[in-house]
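R.M. (postdoc): so does anyone remember the format we settled on? I'll just put the structure tokens first.
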């Protein structure tokens, strides 16, 4: 034992731990296939929304330019400088204000999706045939 290198026991312990972890990981493997092919297993919350989104996303994205991909104008730069000049507490207040606006937008969007569901907006003509 005295002839062993210092730390060799720790290395052996690490190797055995690594081996146990790999064996444990292999016992956790599942061959179950979880996909959306079965409507009974994975029903759509809003009927027709998946097809609607697939049709919506199939439009070419190259024609639309994202709003954050444009160059900053003078007004944008001024706004950035104003934000940079804020104290920490004011900046936190501004972030909270933006969070509240985003939450309200989410609530409104949820209402509109529910409204579309009740008006059968997401129901396609293909399902009628």
């Amino acid at each position: 034992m005295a002839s062993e290198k210092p730390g060799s026991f720790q290395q052996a312990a690490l190797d055995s731990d690594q081996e146990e972890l790999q064996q444990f990981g292999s016992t956790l493997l599942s061959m179950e296939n979880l996909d959306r092919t079965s409507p009974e297993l994975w029903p759509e919350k809003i009927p027709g929304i998946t097809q609607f989104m697939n049709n919506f996303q199939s439009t070419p994205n190259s024609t639309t330019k994202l709003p954050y991909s444009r160059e900053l104008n003078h007004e944008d730069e001024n706004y950035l400088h104003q934000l940079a000049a804020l104290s920490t507490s004011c900046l936190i207040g501004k972030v909270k204000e933006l969070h509240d606006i985003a939450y309200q937008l989410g609530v409104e969007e949820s209402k509109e999706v529910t409204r579309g569901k009740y008006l059968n907006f997401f129901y396609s003509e293909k399902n009628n045939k």
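R.M.: ...and that's the designed sequence above, right after the tokens. Also worth knowing: DSSP finds four helices and no strands in the chain. Residues 88-129 form one domain.
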